[in-house]
Structure formats: C-alpha cells, structure tokens
C-alpha cells in the first residue's frame, strides 16, 4: 500500500541504518513490540510519524488510520522502510523531512506518533513544537521513548555515558527529559506509563494539545 516520496539528500548514516533492525530485534521481543501495538491501536485518522526510521511502527497501524505520513531525516533509514510500508494495512507515504522543520501546514494531522526518536533528534523541543503546530487542536500525540531515569544513581550513569553513546548510536541521548519537553511544547499529558515503578527510563503515553 505504500507510496514513496523521497528527497535526494546524501546525508544520513548508512551503517546505522543497516544494523538498526538487527540491533532492535531482541528489544522488540522484550518489550517494544507491546508498546508499538498500544500506539498502533490508539492511532486514528491522518497520522504523522516523526523519526520513522526503518518503518518499525508501520505494521502496527489499524484501519482506524486513513493515512500515515512517515517522515525521517536519514534517507538510508527511509529507504529501508519501503518494504514495511508496502506490507502495512493502511496507506503510507514515506517522506524525507527534518522533524525540527516539518514541511506541512498547520493542523493537518489527527494523530502524531514518535517512537524512540526524541532521544536522537538534535532539538527535541523544536520537533515537538513543530508537531504541535501541524496537529489539530483535538488531535493527540502518542509516544514511546527512553529518557533520563528518576533514580539519581542511574541518571548519573546515563549522564556520564551519553557523550560516548551518542557517537556510536546515531546521536542517541540516554538522559533526556522528554516528559518536560512534551509539556513545554504545549501538550497536556493524558496518560503516562513509566517503567521501574514509575522511576525508570522507558515512558509511553498520550498527550493532547493544551
Ligand atoms: C532510534 S531511531 C528510531 C526509529 C523508529 N522510530 C523506531 O521506532 O524504530 C531514531 C530516528 O530518529 C531519526 N532522526 C534523527 N534526527 C531527526 C530529525 N531531525 N528529524 C527526523 N528524524 C530524525 C534518526 O534518523 C533515526 O531514524
């Protein structure tokens, strides 16, 4: 069902794109798959996905979705999303785009989805502000992310490791305050699950425009 619209940028990280699905496989089986399923089940209408990567979310959308516009800044990642777009149950448009400067008009989308990308997008707050702009006032933001732990000892390790980690993991930060960033971008959290008795590093939730 997928239609492909991609730019000609020569940027991106071909090695990270090549190994991403393999690295993620055990994590998907461990817990991410269930989180993706919950997001897919909650998505409605015209959906914008930012930082869509190799299209790992695309198989989870249900027919309650009329179209997914899956955006991604790295053409090597996006290229790998083609097969998953073709196998999706809903129409998918793949589009090369920087989440910090989305090429869409105001209020174009009913649902925005971000999965494991706010750790990597250089200015997550700018991306969330852009997401808010293109989302309808009665829309929703669905997310699953890893973030800075609320346990001080773990958070200190995350702070220490991040400078090296981001170099080997495609720009990924282990220590972002993504809940704060979502709220600062004009969203109100409707529900928020957090691992580790609500103090851990994995969050999943739904936020709506304030
Ligand atoms: C860890 S991957 C997650 C991919 C996918 N969402 C998933 O669930 O597997 C993070 C993605 O964010 C993308 N990304 C980084 N900066 C971005 C930006 N400015 N705009 C859009 N995507 C970006 C990366 O290229 C990468 O594909």
What does this structure look like?
The protein is of the alpha/beta class and 210 residues long. It has a single domain, classed as Rossmann fold (3-Layer(aba) Sandwich). The protein has seven helices and eight strands. The chain has helices at residues 14-42, 75-80, 82-86, 124-134, 152-168, 178-184, 195-198; strands at residues 2-5, 45-50, 65-72, 92-96, 109-115, 135-146, 187-194, 202-209. The structure holds S-adenosylmethionine. Residues 50-53, 56-57, 72-74, 77, 98-100, 115-117, 120-121 line the site of S-adenosylmethionine (SAM).
Q: What's this model, at a glance?
A:
The chain has 210 residues and is α/β, with parallel strands linked by helices.
Any key phrases for this structure?
single chain; 210 residues; alpha/beta; Rossmann fold; 8-stranded mixed β-sheet; 7 helices; disordered N terminus; binds S-adenosylmethionine
Order of helices and strands: EHEEHHEEHEHHEHE
- Please indicate the count of domains: 1
Q: Share of helix among residues? A: 25-40%
CATH superfamily: Vaccinia Virus protein VP39
Mean pLDDT rating: 95
Bound molecules: S-adenosylmethionine
Read across the widest sheet, the strand sequence of neighbours is 1-4-3-2-5-6-8-7
> How many strands appear in the DSSP assignment?
8
SS class: alpha/beta
End-to-end Cα distance, whole Å, is 34 Å
- CATH top-level class: Alpha Beta
Low-confidence stretches: 1-9
Over the alpha carbons, how many angstroms does the gyration radius reach?
Answer: 16 Å
Main β-sheet, in a few words?
8 strands, mixed
The CATH topology:
Rossmann fold
What is the strand content? 25-35%
- By CATH, the architecture is named 3-Layer(aba) Sandwich
Number of helical regions: 7
Overall geometry comes to globular
């Amino acid at each position: 069902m997928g239609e492909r619209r991609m730019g000609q940028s020569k940027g991106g990280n071909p090695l990270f794109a090549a190994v991403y699905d393999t690295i993620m496989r055990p994590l998907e089986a461990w817990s991410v798959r269930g989180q993706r399923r919950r997001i897919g089940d909650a998505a409605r209408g015209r959906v914008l996905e930012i930082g869509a990567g190799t299209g790992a979310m695309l198989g989870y959308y249900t027919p309650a979705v009329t179209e997914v516009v899956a955006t991604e800044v790295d053409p090597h990642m996006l290229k790998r999303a083609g097969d998953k777009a073709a196998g999706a149950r809903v129409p998918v448009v793949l589009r090369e785009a920087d989440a910090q400067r989305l090429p869409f008009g105001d209020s174009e989308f009913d649902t925005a989805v971000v999965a494991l990308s706010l750790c990597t997008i250089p200015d997550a707050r700018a991306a969330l502000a852009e997401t808010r702009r293109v989302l309808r006032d009665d829309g929703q933001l669905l997310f699953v992310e890893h973030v800075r732990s609320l346990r001080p000892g773990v958070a200190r390790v995350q702070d220490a490791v991040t400078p090296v980690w981001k170099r080997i993991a495609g720009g990924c930060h282990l220590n972002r305050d993504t809940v704060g960033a979502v709220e600062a971008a004009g969203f109100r959290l409707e529900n928020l699950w957090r691992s580790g008795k609500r103090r851990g590093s994995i969050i999943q939730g739904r936020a709506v425009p304030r």
